[in-house]
User: Which sequence fits this backbone?
């Protein structure tokens, strides 16, 4: 008996304390009526890896999809198994499994418990769309003590936990893309008269998968007189919408627009939008029935009714919203003050997603153009002129770019998803220029990876015959008076062919800028959105000062370090390094999480890699980060909740430091290489904060573009914008 007890004691000592080492965080980054997405992050703070783990998630909601792992129904919830690349939870590391849920109730349910290898672990729930759950869930006591205590004391059979085996940490996949759709709707009244109005219904898909087909029901009390881009049939409470052939699907990151003429005054606000049987969030924009800012001095006794406008219902080849009146003569704009204060004194880059822009018709259906005040009130892009952001990147154009010219008034061939025509958007760009902002066209992004055509044009003579994509990029910069291009090369991997294509793409876009500047004399800049770990030292690119310094990350780690060092072999820039062609680099210092990544380390590495004349900015993402689970807060004092504190850097150094705007901005200030270095934000229109718990238990909010902007001005100082012609 003594031998058995001794053996059991030794076995117990050999088993890691899983309860002390493993924790779980369940975060809901997005939700809609009937469903939501969520990430389950399992972190291992112990000294040894956990191999071949399994988990049980207790929830009342139904899993419809999973990525980075699999989920199978079990009593009270789901059994979760890892994918091959998430099968090991490294020491001081974590793994993340993503889910799409069908909600059983009106809100996403909070899971009540997570078991890892059969053992309950502490659980933190970040669910801004559901009811509150104590955070964190207390760690269950190891085992109840029997009363009365038996004699002799029995030895408990240990919970079977696999003994970790020291194995190399597998290279994680930073950003596997799940197939998820996330829909929302915008109903916007574009013009009205005594007996009716025109309106657009825009259905946005912000998910990572296309919606192959759709139908919708719009619930409203007003009567549809005509419609375009869809057929409409009356049903109880509203109308059933069936798309036209050219907008039957909704691409990932894209939208479709249906136009209406309604009978009814004043316009009624629709109460609900149902797509494919599921109610989705609906924003309603109905302008107040007030006169224009300067009423006519002598009002007529009886206003003449505006004739019901006749929108163009004829199907067109591209989904450019109808009516498409063509390019209208540019009226004399309402004067705007020549300079403004409150602009960040250092670079503050903001990405503007074209698919979220409001629809507007600058020329006006009655023939009276919008005033600048009306345009700023209607266009989200024009409204950025009232913020401290200095450089606005329009996202995203496709690399195999074509441009029909401003006279054609269509975005076809560009990849951009504005609902308004180019002739309207150019007026918003004019407003931003009057306030001293620079506007760049961002090419690529996670959606577009077709860079082969553009990279093949590097070094070729300018012109539509020899370099058609470069020529198209040059012409749109001239037509829209854009201030440059932004390279957003997000093709995964750091192999030689990929690195070469990346460097050639940088060269080709620099040459497109030069071509445009030769036409109109406008100074322009070439920006680049750099991969979060692209300047890391890896096995392929070692640190000369410390060859054993290898980043935790694989995949695309070190890619920019390799691409920037490539020497241009042909054309105007022959003999120069690709990285030396850049004026502005924003580091996508997000989506790498908080367990093994420090944005300030990435900034330092990029700063040392690039010329002193190149501006470098630390990138910030409005929470939640899509894959990394990190949660950005505004000030250092707000960092407390899981995800708001950086645990280690990419080289394994223990930090436990705030993941905050304040820390990033102050770190940039401490570097004296370039006085214009600053911050970058993805993305400007994501303005809803996550409710968080602060160190003292008080309620705080995560960072949003407004608080990032105010922090930048308070730390960087306020500049004065000079109008850009």
Assistant:
């Amino acid at each position: 008996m003594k031998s058995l007890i001794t053996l059991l004691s030794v076995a117990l000592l050999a088993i890691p304390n899983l309860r002390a080492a493993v924790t779980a965080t369940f975060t809901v980054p997005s939700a809609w009526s009937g469903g939501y997405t969520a990430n389950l992050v399992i972190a291992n703070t112990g000294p040894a890896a956990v191999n071949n783990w399994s988990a049980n998630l207790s929830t009342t909601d139904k899993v419809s999809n999973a990525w980075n792992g699999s989920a199978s129904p079990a009593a009270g919830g789901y059994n979760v198994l890892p994918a091959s690349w998430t099968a090991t939870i490294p020491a001081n590391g974590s793994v993340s499994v993503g889910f799409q849920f069908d909600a059983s109730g009106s809100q996403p349910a909070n899971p009540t418990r997570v078991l890892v290898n059969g053992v309950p672990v502490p659980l933190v729930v970040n669910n801004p769309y559901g009811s509150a759950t104590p955070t964190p869930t207390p760690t269950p006591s190891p085992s109840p003590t029997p009363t009365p205590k038996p004699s002799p004391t029995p030895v408990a059979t240990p919970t079977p936990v696999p003994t970790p085996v020291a194995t190399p940490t597998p290279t994680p996949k930073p950003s596997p893309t799940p197939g998820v759709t996330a829909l929302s709707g915008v109903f916007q009244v574009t013009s009205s008269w005594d007996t009716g109005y025109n309106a657009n219904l825009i259905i946005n898909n912000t998910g990572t998968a296309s919606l192959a087909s759709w139908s919708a029901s719009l619930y409203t009390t007003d009567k549809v007189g005509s419609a375009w881009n869809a057929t409409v049939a009356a049903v109880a409470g509203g109308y059933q919408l069936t798309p036209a052939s050219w907008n039957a699907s909704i691409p990932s990151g894209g939208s479709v627009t249906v136009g209406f003429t309604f009978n009814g005054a004043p316009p009624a606000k629709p109460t609900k939008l149902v797509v494919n049987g599921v109610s989705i969030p609906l924003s309603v924009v109905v302008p107040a029935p007030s006169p224009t800012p300067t009423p006519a001095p002598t009002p007529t006794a009886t206003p003449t009714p505006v004739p019901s406008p006749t929108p163009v219902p004829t199907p067109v080849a591209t989904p450019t919203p109808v009516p498409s009146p063509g390019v209208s003569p540019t009226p004399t704009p309402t004067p705007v003050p020549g300079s403004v204060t409150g602009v960040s004194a250092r670079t503050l880059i903001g990405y503007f997603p074209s698919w979220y822009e409001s629809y507007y018709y600058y020329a006006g259906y009655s023939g009276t153009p919008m005033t600048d005040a009306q345009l700023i009130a209607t266009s989200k892009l024009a409204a950025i002129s009232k913020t401290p952001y200095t450089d606005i990147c329009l996202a995203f154009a496709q690399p195999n770019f074509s441009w029909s010219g401003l006279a054609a008034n269509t975005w076809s061939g560009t990849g951009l998803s504005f609902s308004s025509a180019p002739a309207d958007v150019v007026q918003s760009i004019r407003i931003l220029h009057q306030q001293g902002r620079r506007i760049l066209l961002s090419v690529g992004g996670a959606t577009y990876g077709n860079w082969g055509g553009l990279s093949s044009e590097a070094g070729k003579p300018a012109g539509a015959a020899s370099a058609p994509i470069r020529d198209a990029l040059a012409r749109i910069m001239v037509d829209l008076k854009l201030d440059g291009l932004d390279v957003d090369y997000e093709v995964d991997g750091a192999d030689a062919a990929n690195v070469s294509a990346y460097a050639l793409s940088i060269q080709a876009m620099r040459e497109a800028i030069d071509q445009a500047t030769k036409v109109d004399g406008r100074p322009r800049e070439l920006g680049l959105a750099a991969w979060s770990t692209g300047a890391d030292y890896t096995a392929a690119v070692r640190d000369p000062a410390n060859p054993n310094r290898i980043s935790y990350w694989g995949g695309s780690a070190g890619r920019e370090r390799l691409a920037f060092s490539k020497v241009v072999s042909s054309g105007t820039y022959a003999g120069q390094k690709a990285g030396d062609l850049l004026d502005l680099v924003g580091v996508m210092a997000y989506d790498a999480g908080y367990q093994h990544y420090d944005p300030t380390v990435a900034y330092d590495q990029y700063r040392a890699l690039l010329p002193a004349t190149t501006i470098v900015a630390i990138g910030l993402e409005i929470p939640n980060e899509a894959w990394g689970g990190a949660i950005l807060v505004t000030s250092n004092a707000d960092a407390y909740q899981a995800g708001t504190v950086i645990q280690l850097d990419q080289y394994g150094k223990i930090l436990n430091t705030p993941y905050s705007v304040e820390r990033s901005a102050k770190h940039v200030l401490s570097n004296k290489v370039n006085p214009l270095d600053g911050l970058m934000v993805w993305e400007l229109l994501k303005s809803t904060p996550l409710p968080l718990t602060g160190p003292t238990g008080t309620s705080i909010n995560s960072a949003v573009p407004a608080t990032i902007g105010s922090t930048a001005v308070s730390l960087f100082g306020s500049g004065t914008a000079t109008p850009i012609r």
